[in-house]
Design goal:
This is DUF4097 domain-containing protein. It holds the Pfam family DUF4097. InterPro entries: Toastrack_DUF4097. The protein has 241 residues and is an all-beta fold. Among the domains are: 40 residues, no CATH class; 94 residues. The termini are far apart. The strands form three sheets. The chain has an 18-stranded mixed β-sheet that branches. A four-stranded antiparallel β-sheet has the order 7-6-9-10, with no helix packed on it. It has one helix and 24 strands. 32% of the residues are buried.
């Protein structure tokens, strides 16, 4: 199923997205006159989407997929990987999946594509999925439990992932990027704080800046094109640059 929502671009300052499982893409352009929000996925998810616009804030909340098993309802997150069920009848989004033992994949992913004016603020929370931005966004705040985050161009960035890589292709000012299990790749910024428990860190300076980078298990690579006041450490790994 597919649904499209729109608002005038000149009435949009902040976009806020919350989803249990979704692949999210945000495209920012100065040519955008009408902002559009396209949702594709299972009927239950698309029909249950809560979209609101008030005072320059455009928000989307996607419901959690519901699994019915053994006479009760269980809310679960399934995205990309497999699901194993032993015994009983299982219904996912209203569809009978098994009566014995099954192993399979959800074949219809939830995708969200938003076209917005250049320079908005963006806030996303996605438990399982990914975020990718295109074009300039003034402020990005993103949280993901399982999934990658790729920010193309932003003024400031704050990103946190439990399991997933973080990429910031260009930032102007403040960058805070923290991954528990995943690589962190940042280019630009004036005040940068990056960390990962298990993964590598790569940083390229595009201006004089301050950098704090720490890894528990992973390498740290710096490309100093400008003066960098760096505080860098890794418990198990190499530091270069």
């Amino acid at each position: 199923m597919h649904a499209t929502h729109t608002v005038p671009a000149d009435q949009l300052e902040t976009l806020a997205l919350t989803a249990t499982a979704a692949q999210v893409r945000v495209i920012a352009s100065e040519e955008t006159v009408t902002a559009t929000l396209d949702i594709s996925g299972p009927d239950e998810i698309v029909r249950g989407a809560q979209v609101a616009h008030s005072g320059g804030m455009w928000s989307l909340h996607l419901p959690e997929p519901t699994i019915t098993a053994g006479g009760g309802n269980v809310t679960n997150v399934v995205s990309g990987g497999g699901t194993v069920v032993s015994g009983g009848t299982v219904i996912i989004n209203g569809n009978l999946v098994s009566g014995a033992v099954q192993q399979g994949h959800i074949t219809e992913p939830v995708t969200v594509t938003v076209r917005v004016p250049r320079g908005i603020r963006l806030s996303t929370t996605v438990n399982s999925g990914s975020l990718r931005t295109t074009g300039y966004i003034r402020e990005v705040a993103a949280w993901a439990t399982s999934g990658n985050v790729h920010v193309a161009t932003a003024g400031s960035v704050q990103v946190s992932t439990t399991s997933g890589d973080i990429t910031v292709s260009h930032a102007d000012t403040k960058v805070v990027a923290a991954a528990h299990s995943g690589d962190v790749d940042v280019r630009g910024g004036a005040d940068i704080e990056v960390s990962t428990t298990s993964g590598d860190i790569s940083f390229v300076s595009t201006r004089a800046c301050r950098l704090s980078a720490s890894a528990t298990s992973g390498d740290i690579t710096l490309v100093r094109q400008h003066d960098v006041q760096a505080n860098v450490s890794t418990t198990s790994g190499d530091i270069s640059g």
